[in-house]
Design goal:
The structure is a single chain. By secondary structure, the protein is α/β, with parallel strands linked by helices. It has a 6-stranded mixed sheet with strand order 5-6-7-3-8-9, sandwiched between helices. The protein has 7 helices and 9 strands. Helix 3 packs across helix 4 and helix 4 crosses helix 5. Strand 1 and strand 2 form a beta hairpin. It is globular.
Length: 256
C-alpha cells in the first residue's frame, strides 16, 4: 500500500495548490502534440538505495505524443525510472524536467499505474473511482462512469474489485490512471498476469490513447505485444539506458 499512500498524499498536496483540472473530459483527448521540444528531459539521473545505485547517470529526452516502451532484465532500473518520472522516487542526483517543471509540480499532467493495482479490493470499481475523483475535486459519477466505459468495463458492476479477474483489475487500474485526463501515462507492467486476449485488448486501448495525443511509457517484459504499436523501445541495463530502437530487434526480443 506504500505507493497508494504516496500517490494519495501527492494528490492532496496538489489539490491544496488549486492546480487540478476537474472539468477535463477523459475521452475528449486533445489534438495530438506536434511541438518538437521534448516533453521530458532527464539529465544525469542517479538514484541510490543505500549503497546500491538503481539508476546510474541516466540522460535522455523523450518526445511528446509518442509511445515509449522501457525494457530490460529485473534490476535494470525500469521501475525506478518510472517512479522517478512520477515524482515518487526522488533522485539522489540529477534532474528531471516534465513540461518544463519538476515531477512534483507536473504531477497533475501525469497518470501513474503501478505494478500493484492501488485499488481497494473491498470496493467496487465505481466506488474506487469515486474515492479518487474526490481527491481531484471531480463531482458526480459521470466522469467515473465515462472512464470505466472507456476501458470496456461496466460501471454498474457491483462486484468488489477483489473478485475481479486480473485482466479486469488491470483495466480498472488504467481507468484510475486516466481519471484526471493526464498528458503523460506511466504504466508499470500493465500486462502482468493477464491472459493474452485481455492483454491485446489493453494494447488496443493504449494505441487509441497514443493516437489521441497522449505520451505513453510502458515498462513490460512482454514487449512483443507492443511491436508495431510503440514508437520506440528503450533498453536498460544496470541502471542505464544502453540503446533506443524503433523496432523490437530479434536478438533483443529473445532476451526479454
Amino acid at each position: 500500500m506504500t505507493d497508494l499512500v504516496i500517490v494519495t498524499n501527492e494528490m492532496q498536496r496538489i489539490l491544496r495548490s488549486g492546480k487540478l483540472r476537474p472539468d477535463s473530459e477523459c475521452c475528449n483527448f486533445p489534438t495530438p502534440v506536434t511541438d518538437a521540444a521534448p516533453i521530458i528531459t532527464v539529465s544525469n539521473l542517479i538514484k541510490q538505495f543505500g549503497r546500491f545505485a538503481a539508476l546510474r547517470g541516466v540522460t535522455a529526452e523523450f518526445d511528446a505524443g509518442k509511445f515509449h516502451v522501457i525494457l530490460g532484465d529485473n534490476g535494470a532500473g525500469k521501475t525506478t525510472l518510472l517512479r522517478a518520472l512520477a515524482g515518487l522516487a526522488h533522485p539522489t542526483r540529477g534532474t528531471i524536467s516534465i513540461l518544463g517543471k519538476n515531477p512534483q509540480d507536473a504531477c497533475r499532467e501525469v497518470g501513474y499505474m503501478a505494478h500493484p493495482s492501488l485499488l481497494y479490493d473491498e470496493m467496487s470499481g465505481l466506488e474506487n473511482l469515486r474515492y479518487f475523483a474526490r481527491l481531484y475535486d471531480i463531482a458526480g459519477d459521470g466522469r467515473c462512469e465515462q472512464v470505466i466505459r472507456s476501458v470496456r468495463l461496466d460501471p454498474e458492476l457491483a462486484r468488489p474489485v477483489g473478485q475481479y479477474s486480473q485482466g479486469m483489475r488491470q483495466r480498472m487500474s488504467l481507468a484510475r490512471a486516466i481519471l484526471h485526463d493526464p498528458t503523460i501515462l506511466l504504466l508499470d507492467e500493465p500486462f502482468s498476469n493477464v491472459d493474452v486476449h485481455s492483454a491485446r485488448e489493453m494494447v488496443v486501448l493504449l494505441k487509441g490513447m497514443r493516437y489521441a495525443g497522449k505520451t505513453i511509457f510502458v515498462v513490460t517484459h512482454q514487449a512483443s505485444l507492443l511491436e508495431g504499436v510503440a514508437d520506440e523501445f528503450v533498453w536498460m541495463r544496470d541502471g542505464q539506458i544502453v540503446d533506443r530502437t524503433s523496432t523490437l530487434t530479434p536478438d533483443r526480443a529473445g532476451t526479454q
